Amino acid sequence: MSTKTLCIFTPAYNRAYLLLRLYESLCAQSNQDFEWLVIDDGSTDGTELLLQKLQAEGRIQMRYIVQNNQGMHGAHNTAYQNIQAPINTCIDSDDYAPIDAVEKILKACEALPTNCAGIVGLDANTKGQIIGTRFNQAYTTLEQFYHEGGKGDKKIVYKTEVVKRYPAYPLFEGERYVGLAYLYLLIDKDYVLKTLNEVLVIVDYQAEGSSNNMLKQYVKNPQGFLFYRTAMLQHSAYKAVQFRHAIHYVSSALQLKKWHLLWQAPKPFLVALALPFGIVLRLYIAYKTRAL
Question: Given CA atoms 127, 130, 131, 132 in this order, what sign does their dihedral have?
Fold first, then answer.
């Protein structure tokens, strides 16, 4: 099996009913210089059987890996450990690619400078409308883009050699969520991204997806969120961002009943300022999720 230039990886958990749409969009790509790597994250809905069938068709180069359920971040860990292509991007199981997505990605990734970790392009909804805002500069970091008023989900394509330099997402027993932005923030500290005002993915948010159930995720994954908030306090380049995460840090520490973390925080003065807001946030989350 030849090594392709691009690896498109897809974490999948009980999404057999959606994977076929993504698969067909990949089969239709104008440029086939890619491999599709699917991480079956402990599905119980026949996803593995579907992947066997699709692989046997031989229409595109694809691999799949089956693992026990670890959550989205655990599936990303597995993908990064197994990617061989020079560049990679994640397309979620409920999304799909425009016919020229691979072609645009490969062209944009030609001769990237050494200080550039990859490219960042646009997402659109199923009606073709751009999600959020476009880019207004040639190079940026994700944190800079959002701090300066950028909005909406964006599609990142990373150099594989860059991603592999950074630590894996931690796994916490009994939890299934750590914010993917943790890795992106670490990369932001060392590299920029080349912007591309082109649609690379069509996004179709699902009602049961994590984007639509964030309060429930807070309650179910307190250690994962505390880890993420700690990282943001340590590494964010912006005081306003640090303060916002300090509020969430307080809320997560209170949920875990780890009071000592309030004075052992990476930025204790900032956490002290955030304390009343964090208490209010904790009470709000408890109230909103009491029936979940």
Answer: negative
């990605």: which residue's tokens?
105
Q: Which amino acid, 187?
A: I
In angstroms, the CA 21 to CA 95 distance is 8
The CA distance from 95 to 93, in Å, is 6
Nearest Cα to Cα of residue 271 among 292, 253, 255: 253
Ranges of each domain in the chain: 6-211, 213-288
Answer whether 0.90 is exceeded by the pTM. Answer: yes
Whether 188 and 232 have beta carbons less than 8 Å apart is answered as: no
End-to-end CA distance of the chain: 47
Radius of gyration of the chain (CA): 20
User: 265 is written with which tokens?
Assistant: 């925080």
Strand stretches in 42-160, DSSP E: 62-67, 87-90, 116-125, 139-140, 154-159
63, two tokens: 């691999």
pLDDT tens for each residue of 21-62: 999 999 999 999 999 999 999 999 999 999 999 999 999 999
* Cβ neighbours around 182 below 10 Å, total: 20
Give the angle subtended at the CA of 233 by the CAs of 223 and 212, to the nearest 5°.
55
| CATH 3.90.550.10 for domain 6-211 | yes
Beta strands in 27-181 (DSSP E): 34-41, 62-67, 87-90, 116-125, 139-140, 154-159
